[in-house]
Design a protein that fits this description.
Helices cover about 75% and strands about 5% of the residues. It is built from 15 helices and 2 strands. A two-stranded antiparallel ribbon has the order 1-2. A hairpin with a 2-residue loop joins β1 and β2. α6 packs across α7 and α10 packs parallel to α15.
């Protein structure tokens, strides 16, 4: 019981961090049709900028200012770079954002160095929130969960109940009609790209202080974020939320399991010996196989439901 509850809570917090990253990428793809490979670079930059601001003004100032600055940077990237590439097709967009990710990594190493930086949480977030089965659950994990839930609610409210949300959704499917009504569609797309970049930077400002802030942090989590949006369904914010929670819980639980698949099968009454094909894999601990599970889940979802769990985009 203790193992299940603690891993469920840890999986929820990790899944919410994935969602904060996947939300911005999903919004950019659903509104613009751009699969932004540089998205996780804004996550990394958000962590580093938040760290630099926290040194001078404190953690909370960095948490607010870093997403705003990176949101403006994302809008500038769309306005002065991606917009001119957009008319040449998706291949050019992918190459542009792919190259931008490498540029961001090199700039981080030049400015902040290759070693991890000491991005620390404030004392109020490092305290235990409650103790369950002799295991403490820290305040910062609850803070990460609440921030992600608030972000989901804000995105849903803006898209469904505000005028700018209606304009954004209309610009996706009927851009010429929206332009004929007097709206600047390129500016709408620029705001969407900047907003998605700000969400990634917010995830970085939180995740960078909880985990490690170092130059490879974007690469280590980038592929998982793309797995999330594929499993959830390209362009589906609700699908990204569900997929983030599933991957977070499954991967966190698997990392904590020392048993092998052969041991679990033996407990079910299935004796697996060395003569069985694939015994080397079956005898490997589940914790060692944990990094593969999201990709196996993606292959399974694409095989059974290519659109993803909640995807509707063709």
């Amino acid at each position: 019981m203790e193992f299940a509850v603690i891993n469920l809570l840890n999986g929820l917090s990790y899944g919410m961090l994935l969602f904060m990253l996947a939300a911005g990428l999903t919004l950019i793809f659903s509104m613009m049709g751009v699969l932004n490979f540089a998205h996780v670079s804004f996550y990394m930059l958000g962590a580093y900028v938040g760290y630099s601001i926290s040194i001078k003004l404190g953690f909370w100032a960095g948490l607010v200012i870093a997403p705003v600055l990176l949101g403006f940077l994302g809008a500038a990237v769309e306005r002065y770079g991606l917009r001119s590439v957009h008319r040449h097709g998706h291949v050019h967009e992918l190459l542009y954002t792919f190259g931008l990710a490498y540029v961001a990594t090199e700039l981080v190493q030049v400015i902040w160095g290759r070693a991890p930086v000491p991005y620390k949480l404030p004392a109020v977030l490092e305290q235990p929130l409650f103790t369950l089965f002799s295991t403490t659950f820290p305040v910062y994990r609850a803070f990460m969960i609440l921030t992600a839930v608030a972000m989901l609610g804000a995105c849903f409210a803006v898209l469904k109940f505000t005028r700018i949300g209606l304009v954004i959704q209309a610009a996706l499917t009927h851009p010429s009609m929206v332009e004929s009504l007097g709206h600047d569609v390129p500016r709408v797309f620029m705001l969407v790209f900047g907003g998605g970049s700000a969400l990634a930077a917010l995830a970085g400002a939180i995740g960078g202080s909880i985990f490690s802030t170092e130059p490879s942090m974007a690469q280590s989590i980038g592929s998982i974020v793309f797995v999330v949006i594929v499993i959830g369904g390209l362009g589906s914010l609700a699908g990204a939320f569900v997929a983030s929670l599933l991957i977070g819980i499954v991967q966190t639980t698997a990392v904590a399991m020392d048993q092998s698949l052969a041991t679990l099968l033996k407990a079910l009454g299935i004796d697996v010996g060395p003569s069985v094909p694939g015994y080397a894999v079956l005898s490997t601990s589940i914790a060692q196989l944990a990094p593969l599970l999201p990709y196996l889940a993606m292959v399974l979802i694409l095989t059974l439901r290519p659109r993803g769990l909640l995807g509707t985009r063709a």
